[in-house]
Structures are given as C-alpha cells and as structure tokens.
Design goal:
The protein has 2 helices and 2 strands. By secondary structure, the protein is α+β, with helices and mostly antiparallel strands. Helix 1 packs across helix 2.
C-alpha cells in the first residue's frame, strides 16, 4: 500500500483474552493493488511498516487467513 491510500484497519486486544476490538476501519482502497502479493512482499511490508521481522511461513499463513 502507498502512504496516500485511505485503507486502514486498527484494532486492540481486549484485556486477558484472545479477542480484539476494531477501533478504525476504512475498506476503501485509493491505491493500485498488486495482483499477487507474495509472502515475501508481506515480510517486507511488515518490516518497513512495523520494524518487525517475520519468517516466510508466518507471512504465508497470514496471507492464507486473510484470503
């Protein structure tokens, strides 16, 4: 996603549970989307946006769950 894209999803964990609350959600994309977002792309996005390294399988599973 580009910095100009209006799509946003923010959530927070509920205390001492596995549940979360959606705080903000805008499902409208204003950026062009790549047809095939690979697990490698997801790894790079997470590193760039959050400063966190995730392994390939975690990125792959995240993509599968999102689809």
């Amino acid at each position: 996603m580009s910095k100009e894209c209006q799509w946003i999803f923010k959530s927070s964990c509920l205390n001492k549970t596995t549940l979360f609350r959606v705080r903000c959600f805008n499902n409208e994309h204003t950026c062009p989307l790549k047809d095939k977002h690979t697990p490698k792309d997801i790894q790079e996005d997470v590193k760039r946006e959050l400063g966190v390294d995730i392994n390939y399988m975690k990125a792959w599973h995240s993509k599968e769950r999102a689809i």
